[in-house]
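From the pipeline queue, job 12 of 40. The input is one protein chain; the requested action is below.

Action: predict structure.
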Amino acid sequence: MAAGPSWSVMPSVLIVEIFSYLSLKDRLRASSSCKRWRSCLFHPSLWCGVVLNLSYSKRQRTRFLVERCGRFLRQVVICFNSNNPTEVRECLRILEVLSENKVIASLGLQPSSCHLEWTCEPPFYVTDRYLTCIEKIISTSRKLKHLSLGSVDQLLEHSHTVLELLSRYHCDRLKALHLASVKEDSENYGIIDLNVDLIRSFKALQHLSIDYDFLSSSLLEAFLSTEKDQLDRLCIHVHGIEPDHEKITNETWRKLRNRHPKLEVTINLIHSYEGVANLLDILQPCLPLTNFRQFFCSNLNMAAVDFISTHHSESLRSFYVIDGFQDGYPNLYISTTEEDPFVMMAWRCSKLEEFTLIGYEVLDDNVVAIARLRGQNLKTFNIPYSCVSTVYETDGENAMQVERYVNPELADMVSSSLGWSWQPLPDNQTPRAVYDDQADAETAYMKILHSDQAWKCK
């Protein structure tokens, strides 16, 4: 007050407090008032969590932010095109800065694919440099609670090293660990030597993502200890299945569910032909299945679909299947019962909120039935135009015929049941890999997998 009515001499603690109530956009505008306010913009308390985007239009801004705040950021997500060597290199530079950060609590990689592309240097050189930074981040940080390697197979091949360091430095505080990978060739990949017993050391773990290759009764029983925090989410990626892989018993799942009553399990089948064929061996009645997803597996196990809707009717919230067309046409699924299995799922599963079926032919009457049964509880309902068929009667020898066109009244009937405006998914919004088997399928599911691995802990 003695200095007069000048905003520029307001104490820094008050400026920072004001900034803390503003959105990032308004905070940036306010910081342009004067040099003093600009300096307060970069107070550590204002930059707890950031998403660093390495696309060309945002790269300069990201570089500046990392240079100013990289050593005191607490929650960091790095989004980048892993098929672009420039963005892969930029991501590495960010990791080098973060390796000096002692307060980082959450690190998540969100690449566009499961592979890192690089030019000039051999592939192993890229992996080694990334791993060196990640290892240093783990050993330098004093507060690490969440780590996601973005399903990058090249990095996750060294999960044993990451797991050992996490066990050594963060066994009492780590809340989320995501080691699940993506195998584009699910029939031909090596199984790494991963000592899953180290997971026993994590006392605060709430979220875990892991490949089905390493899932065992021993691992699940480690969470039965009363000394551990509640396990809230378990995400399982299914690729190939070894002939001698242990089958998790229903009794093991029953014990785990009783110990962790709020546990939600997500099963993602990714290019997994064996996973579809053996799905009934993976599923168990006491498994608390919340999200089931199947990405480009070339088949549907209708007996397993019926099993899910029968035994997981009280837990299933999301059902997502996407597959490629065969010879330019959607696939057909053969029901083992008189009723359509997806209509029965809508009837039985009282908590179903999201339903997506792409790549398979669906009768318009069944689309309407699903919408009527779920009503306003269904928040997401994705069926492409090109997958909807209409049955009509004829006077000829064939009493019924099926035609691939959308009844003009379909959208209105479905919208009326859902309570929100619905349209079949336009073909131009359907992933290209559905129509073109040469297209990159990862663009259809990587964002979904990243959402599984986002920071959600309390």
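Job complete. The longest strand covers residues 264-270.
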